[in-house]
Amino acid sequence: MGLWDGNLRNSPSDVAIDSILLLAIAVLYIPQIARIISSQSTYGISPYFILFNAIFSNIQLANTLLLAARAWPTDKSPVLELIGNGQLRGSKAFGAVLGLIQVALQWAFSIILVMLYATYPASSAPSASSSITRTSIPITAFIHAALFLLPAVVIALPKPLPPSINVDIFTGFSAIINTWVSLIFVTLQFYPQYLELRRQAGDPGALSLLTLGMQAVVLILIAVRWLQRLGAPTWGRQAVPASYWFQWGWLPFNYIVLKLLKGE
Hints:
This protein has 264 residues and is mostly helical. Helix content is 73%, strand content 0%.
């Protein structure tokens, strides 16, 4: 029994659509990065917004890697195993992993923002406490990545590791714990930024409202594409248990929630 009736969505038209989305992800972060670098400041950006976004991105990428290595499009023929065995090659292989690459690119930009926060202070005369925060935010994000993302990379790339008790324990732990924890971080990450905007009387400072607006559009498109890849939820010939609906659609659902919160 599986959770979904997945498909690779790697036809030429699918590759074109997902390539455009990949480009859109890159473009939408440019205004935020340019705003921070040009002002040489992170004034107006909550450190916890940066941190929660990075942790959410770590979880999202880790679980997507494990999904591609173990369970999508099916648990019998996961896409990274098909590529590793040479059953998928060329444009078909590229198209099959474009969804994973999209998640990876979004993660990469979240890490770039962490590094920019560590590089540029929020004020021209940073206090000792703000300097500690600028150091602790990247350390926390990278420790989390080392604990949860790095093992997923080792398991999934360049070819999925064969099943073993250690691999199965980590995969199961990640699927059960991180899947639900990601919902917490995607929900909470904008609250610190909301408080920061209130503290600054609505002044966004170095925060790019243009980037937030564009992300709201692009993220919903990514969510739709992942819903198409996963196909309909299934549970053998039985009705899908209610508790499995989020486990089926956690990846697109998180992006939908992220879009709604960014759009507020």
